Amino acid sequence: MNKIINKQNASNYTWGDNCLSWILNNSESLSIKQELMPIGSKEQLHFHEKATQFFYVLKGQATFYLEDEVFILNPNDGLSVLNNTKHFIANESNDDIEFLVISQPSTNNDRVNI
After folding, report:
1. DSSP 42
2. SS3 67
3. Per-residue pLDDT for the chain (114 aa), expressed as one digit of tens each?
4. Which of 67, 89, 102, 104 could form a disulfide with 54 if both were Cys (CB 3.0 to 4.6 A apart)?
5. How far apart are the first and last CA of the chain?
6. What are phi and psi of 52, to 5 degrees?
7. In the 8-state DSSP scheme, what is residue 68?
């Protein structure tokens, strides 16, 4: 069944430091989430054994830590993270950040925290 999905009708959950995630698509082969990270929040360093991810910033400025590199993404910037790459995202700006994270395959049961 086809239906329009958005933040108002998508399943959602809270993670980390009061971060929000709206599940726009969730299948074994593809996951698409829209996420919001408040000022000062960050993820734990981790990697995915199978999933490759693509992050796309909608609002704010996101700081990505990948292995030994740091990337600053602004609205309309995207970044691919290959599987087995240690990474985390942080909001080190003065505004909330909102972004899409697209994972193939899904990251369900495919996250190793460090």
Report:
1. B
2. coil
3. 689 999 999 999 999 889 999 999 999 999 999 999 999 999 999 999 999 999 999 999 999 999 999 999 999 999 999 999 999 999 999 999 999 999 999 999 999 999
4. 102
5. 39
6. -100, 140
7. T
Cα separation of 67 and 80, whole Å? 13
CB contact set of 39 (below 8 Å; sequence gap of 6+): 91, 93, 94, 95, 96
Place of tokens 């704010």: 60
Question: What is the pLDDT at residue 2?
Answer: 84
Which of the 8 DSSP states describes residue 7? T
Give CA–CA dist 26/102, Å, rounded: 10
Which tokens in the block code for residue 93? 């700006």
Q: In this structure, what token pair is assigned to residue 50?
A: 């199978």
Residue type, 80: S
